[in-house]
Amino acid sequence: MKPSKIYIIAGEASGDFLGAAILKKLKELDFDISIIGGELMKAQGLKSLFDISEISVGGIVEIIPHIRKIKRLIKKSAQDILLKNPDILLTIDSPGFNFRIAKIVRKLNKEIKLIHFVAPSVWAWREKRAKKIAKIYDMLLTLFDFEPPYFEKYGLNTIFVGHPAIEYFSPMPAEKEDFILLMPGSREQEIKALLPIFLQSVENRPEKIIIPTIPGVVELIRTILGNRQIEIETSEDKKRELYQKAKFAIVASGTAVLQLALSNCPMVVCYKLSSVTYNILKYLVNTKYVSLVNIILNKQSVPELIQNNCTAENIILNINPIHFSKQISDFSELKKRLMNKNDLPTSAILKSILTLSRS
After folding, report:
1. Among 17, 121, 238, 279, which is 20 to 30 Å from 39 by CA?
2. What architecture does CATH give domain 170-337?
């Protein structure tokens, strides 16, 4: 039997992590694989059509200067998919980029099965998106157990698979060591907005400072650091160890928050957007919390310092050993909400892909 052909697209660092976890499973089978991904996916021995750093832009007004290039890469991606004619196109996260590609592919080749992994946050804003993607995709895989009903009501085959982070990040029973992690995000605009504030907040602390990050932004970080002698770490294995042993982290809101929580690393969560983007989102988003930990637990477990509240002074005020101890207690609840009851997340994902490829 001819091997199944699958094309996988991840649009940013969080999707690159998820894509790499899936690739490890797919490589055990006889799949013909093409990718658009980042360093972690390429580390699986595959060549990406382009590097995702070219499209890793967040926000609303922040994306405007990059629109022409992103449109060109959407067209290039769709052309490559149609040329390679895979049995399955798996898009991961980055809905603004991936849904546009999927729509073109669906229109021009109805034989390719389309799967999207990581449901768009319709429970937070723009719920009507659920109906739109139900018209494009054959299957949706979700990270969280409360998400399927939002899409199933529109007839989309939606499966809760769980979060692969639980297979890679876990607490270490040993004592915490005397160092702090600064994690200002993976996008250029995040790092420029947050890293100077993070540095100011730890300026007079005695602990060692380490910045875990991805290779593509190391030079930007070094530029901001100037003459400061601060360690930068890009090894994924080393980063997992750092998360387990760190005293605490100051982190940009995103997937890293979950990874730290699963590693029992207490944290202060921060985020800043342009004032225009923030004011638009303030009226669109209908969740009480920003960080995934607080959203999943439905309570303020980790402090969230957003926009004007994101200052060095406020970060310092929230570095509290008593509160950090309470966070670690709360983190024990997370794994239950992120685990598929029947399979590990990557196994559940693989089963779903195989089921669709044979249908």
Report:
1. 121
2. 3-Layer(aba) Sandwich (3.40)
Q: How many residues does the chain have?
A: 359
Q: Which long-range contacts (CB under 8 A, 24 or more apart) does 262-265 make?
A: 262/165, 262/166, 262/169, 262/170, 262/171, 262/331, 262/334, 262/335, 262/338, 263/169, 263/170, 263/171, 263/172, 264/171, 264/172, 264/328, 264/331, 265/181
pLDDT, one tens digit per residue, over 266-292 is: 999 999 876 666 555 665 566 788 898
The CATH 3.40.50.2000 domain(s) of the chain lie at 5-162+340-358, 170-337
227-263: b or e for each residue (b if 16 or more CB lie within 10 Å)? Answer: eeeeeeeeeeeebbebbbbbbbbbbbbbbbbbbbbbb
For 306-321, how does the pLDDT look when each residue is reduced to its tens digit (9 = 90+)? Answer: 989 999 999 999 999 9
CA-CA distance, 148 to 298, in Å (whole number)? Answer: 18
pTM: 0.85
